[in-house]
Design brief:
By secondary structure, the chain is of the alpha/beta class. It is built from 14 helices and eleven strands. The strands form two sheets. Strands 1, 2, 3, 4, 5 and 9 form a six-stranded mixed β-sheet that branches. Strands 6-7-8-11-10 form a five-stranded mixed β-sheet. The N terminus is likely disordered.
Length: about 375
C-alpha cells in the first residue's frame, strides 16, 4: 500500500503543471532561468497562446525583426484554434516540451500540440519551435529562421539577397532576377527586394518557419514556399522562383474574387516556369513543355485537346509528375493573347473570374481571340504547331 501511494505521489509530481489556462508547463521541465525571469517567461508564453486561442495575435508579443513572418506562420495555429468545437476547447492540448538558452537573452523553445480522440490514444498534431527573446520584464517570440541559418552565407543578386550554406548557382540567380523584373514591369509594378533562402525541401522550410513537425504536411517535400513577408524559400534548392513571383505581383493589382486560376497558372508557366524541378534539379520552362506537348500530339494525333485541357490529364510524368498540361496550353493561349492584345488582354483574362473558372476562362478567350469550346481543338492545335 505504501509502495502504491509512493508511485502515485511520484507520478503526480511529474505531471502536476503550473497554473496556466492555455499552455501546460510541466514542473519537470528544466528551465535554466532565474525565478523572476521564469515567471515573466511563463506569463508571456501564456499570453501568446491565450491570444491565439481567441483568434488573434498580439503584435507586442512578437519580436520586431521577424514580426510579419512570425505572424503569418502562427496564423495556421490561430486557424486551428478557431476550428475547434466546444468539446475540443476543454482539452489541454498544448505543452511546453523544451527550452534552452541560445544567447544571453534568447531561448529556443518547443511546444507540442496533441489531439485526444475519445477513448483513443492522443495524436501529435504539431511541434512548434520559437525563439523567445527577453525584453525587460516580458518576452517576445519569433520564428527560428535567423538562429537556424546563423552560419549560412549571403549574396545579393540584383533585387534578391540569397541565403545559402555552401554554393550559389549565380547563373540561375541572375535569370531569376531578370524574370522578377520583367514580370513586375509587365504588370506595371516596381520589382521588389526579396530574401531568398536556399532550402533542400519543404520539410526544411517548415522547420525554419517554426514547424518542426506537422501532421498536415508530414512527408511533403517537393514544394517551395513564398512569397511571404518578402521572403522566398527555394523549391528543391533551385534559385529560380519566378513562377510564384507572378502570382505575388498579380495579387497586388488583381482582386482575389476575380482572379482566374487557369489563367494565373498559364501565365506563371509562360512568364516564370512550371514551379517544380525535373529529375536533375532544373526548373522546367514553358518552351520545353510545349516541345513535349508537340511530340505527344505527333504520337497521339487523335487526341481531343479540349478533353486534355478540361480534365488536366497527366502527360509529363517523364519530366515531373506534378506538371499540368492545362497550364501548358493556357500559357500557349496567353502568349497569343499577349501578342495580339497586349498586357491589357492578359489582364482581362486574369480577371475572368474565380467561380466556374473553365466557363469563365473560355468566355474571355472567345471575346479576345475567338477560342471557345466548339473550336478549341482546331484553333489550339494551330497555336501549338506554330509555337
Amino acid at each position: 500500500m505504501i509502495k502504491n501511494n509512493l508511485t502515485i505521489i511520484l507520478l503526480f509530481s511529474f505531471t502536476t503543471l503550473f497554473a496556466q489556462e492555455t499552455i501546460l508547463i510541466p514542473k519537470f521541465l528544466k528551465n535554466p532561468m532565474d525565478s523572476i525571469t521564469k515567471q515573466n517567461f511563463n506569463q508571456s508564453l501564456e499570453s501568446l497562446f491565450s491570444e491565439m486561442k481567441k483568434g488573434k495575435i498580439d503584435e507586442s508579443l512578437l519580436t520586431p525583426k521577424k514580426a510579419e513572418l512570425t505572424q503569418s506562420q502562427l496564423q495556421e495555429l490561430v486557424n486551428y484554434e478557431i476550428k475547434k468545437d466546444s468539446s475540443e476547447l476543454k482539452n489541454k492540448d498544448k505543452q511546453l516540451i523544451n527550452i534552452y538558452p541560445v544567447s544571453n537573452n534568447e531561448y529556443f523553445i518547443s511546444v507540442s500540440y496533441t489531439y485526444q480522440k475519445p477513448e483513443s490514444e492522443s495524436i501529435l498534431l504539431y511541434i512548434i519551435n520559437l525563439i523567445a527573446t527577453k525584453d525587460e520584464n516580458k518576452f517576445t517570440f519569433s520564428v527560428p529562421i535567423d538562429y537556424l541559418t546563423r552560419y549560412w552565407k549571403t549574396q545579393t543578386i540584383g533585387n534578391t539577397t540569397y541565403h545559402f550554406r555552401n554554393n550559389l548557382n549565380t547563373e540561375r540567380a541572375k535569370l531569376f532576377d531578370k524574370k522578377n523584373s520583367e514580370i513586375a514591369k509587365k504588370l506595371g509594378l516596381i520589382p521588389e527586394k526579396m530574401d531568398f533562402y536556399m532550402t533542400d525541401n519543404f520539410q526544411e522550410i517548415s522547420e525554419l518557419l517554426s514547424f518542426k513537425y506537422s501532421l498536415f504536411s508530414n512527408g511533403k517535400y517537393r514544394d517551395g514556399y513564398g512569397v511571404d513577408s518578402k521572403t522566398i524559400f527555394a523549391i528543391m534548392n533551385n534559385e529560380d522562383f519566378s513562377h510564384d513571383m507572378f502570382h505575388y505581383y498579380s495579387g497586388k493589382i488583381n482582386k482575389r474574387e476575380n482572379r482566374n486560376w487557369i489563367t494565373e497558372e498559364g501565365i506563371a508557366y509562360l512568364w516564370g516556369n512550371a514551379y517544380y524541378t525535373d529529375k536533375n534539379g532544373e526548373m522546367i520552362t514553358h518552351k520545353r513543355l510545349v516541345t513535349e506537348l508537340q511530340n505527344y500530339l505527333s504520337k497521339n494525333p487523335n487526341t481531343n485537346l479540349y478533353e486534355l485541357f478540361s480534365k488536366n490529364e497527366k502527360i509529363f510524368n517523364n519530366i515531373a509528375p506534378e506538371i499540368s498540361v492545362r497550364s501548358t496550353i493556357s500559357g500557349i493561349i496567353t502568349q497569343e493573347i499577349e501578342t495580339k492584345k497586349g498586357v491589357e488582354g492578359t489582364t482581362k483574362l486574369i480577371n475572368a473570374g474565380r467561380e466556374k473558372r473553365l466557363e469563365s476562362y473560355l468566355k474571355v478567350t472567345d471575346e479576345l481571340i475567338g477560342i471557345n469550346r466548339e473550336n478549341f481543338n482546331t484553333k489550339v492545335k494551330e497555336l501549338i504547331e506554330e509555337y
